[in-house]
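[agent] plan:
  1. take the single chain provided in the ticket
  2. run structure prediction with default settings
  3. attach structure tokens to the ticket
  4. add a short note for the reviewer (M.T.)
[agent] executing step 1
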Amino acid sequence: MILLRHGQSEFNVRFAVDRRDPGIVDPPLTPLGRQQIGQAAEALAGERIRRILASPYTRTLQTAALLAERLDLPVLVHPVVRERFAFTCDVGTPRTGLSRTWPDHDFSHLEEVWWPAQEEPLHALLDRAALFRAEMAALPDWSDTLVVTHWGFILAMTGERLENGEWRRCDPTGPCPEDVTLRH
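[agent] step 2 finished; step 3 output follows
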């Protein structure tokens, strides 16, 4: 499967200045973020992708929408691939708000408030990644899946730190990364 980090968000721009939480709830993509995903869509156009899974955050849904348009595929919302809850940007939009904004997506499997109430410990993120690995490994066509997700989730899946708009292949049948740390 392919793991793609969402394009640059409003949070990413402000956080990069001084590494402090700017207090932006469920931030959208920036124009640069949209450009990054346009470039990723071009690079992915030749890949065999039959399914797009996306985290329920606005930045990933916007990223997935740009890719879905280019690749002519529907988007399936999958909360397991959400970001590790650690900053204000990880407060999501309630299910009813998502349904109004994205009427073509199915959010019926989400709770109204689907993100955690407090910071998610690393072991919980790693457990979610292991659950997702097992779920994907059970599918005969896992290699045809594009997952639009986040920095922390990709780190838990691969041990790699990706920039906005970057992507990596990930074999869910392979081993989990051995040593995952959140900070350098």
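[agent] step 4 note for reviewer: The chain has a mean pLDDT of 94.
[agent] ticket updated
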